[in-house]
Design brief:
- The protein is of the alpha/beta class and 174 residues long.
- It is 42% helix and 20% strand.
- The chain contains 7 helices and 8 strands; from the N terminus they run E-E-E-H-H-E-H-H-E-H-E-H-E-H-E.
- The two termini are 15 Å apart.
Length: 174
């Protein structure tokens, strides 16, 4: 299991490194319509989430894509993973974030500073009362520099969340 800490979120766990066949699989999942991969990814994430967090969170949510990307792709890959993971954990997912700005893909940004600047202000919490005082587990597909997870966590904390933790399928290998 890989553990990443970052600004605004306590820890993000991932069972895999983003390289070789894992990278190829995640790219097929995101860009070639392989929606069914979400179930396998969630089962890989399950042990990480159980051992790191147990039941120590109130809300299970995901890092959303923009409406434009959702229309183009036809699905939100992080939501599919979160919903599959929620099923394994006997939980419900709760949409707590909206992506209000269609930022350029983070994969093309390069440095952590450029990634942070690119994603700054891209998310909002439409219903702050849902997150107030809550511990939130936020699911994403890949964590690289942690800029996206940090921006989402910052947005949630500013809306009143108590704590934000993360889980991803894979993390970049330093």
């Amino acid at each position: 299991m890989c553990r990443v800490s970052g600004d605004f979120f306590t820890v993000c766990v991932a069972p895999l490194y983003y390289r070789d066949s894992v990278r190829d699989s995640l790219l097929r999942f995101k860009f070639s319509g392989r929606r069914t991969y979400a179930e396998a990814y969630a089962s890989l994430m399950f042990d990480c989430v159980q051992s790191e967090f147990g039941g120590g969170f109130d809300i299970l949510s995901w890092v959303p894509v923009s409406r434009r990307r959702l229309r183009r792709r036809g699905y939100d890959q992080a939501r599919l993973i979160a919903e599959a993971l929620a099923g394994l954990l006997s939980r419900e997912t709760v949409p707590v974030l909206s992506k209000v700005r269609d930022a350029a893909p983070q994969s093309g940004m390069g440095s952590a500073e450029k990634r942070r600047a690119n994603i700054s202000g891209a998310y909002t919490v439409p219903s702050p009362e849902l997150v107030e005082g809550k511990r939130i587990l936020l699911v994403d597909d890949i964590i690289t520099t942690g800029a996206t997870m940090s921006e989402c966590a910052k947005t949630l904390l500013l809306a009143g969340a108590d704590q934000v933790m993360g889980a991803a399928v894979a993390r970049s290998h330093d």
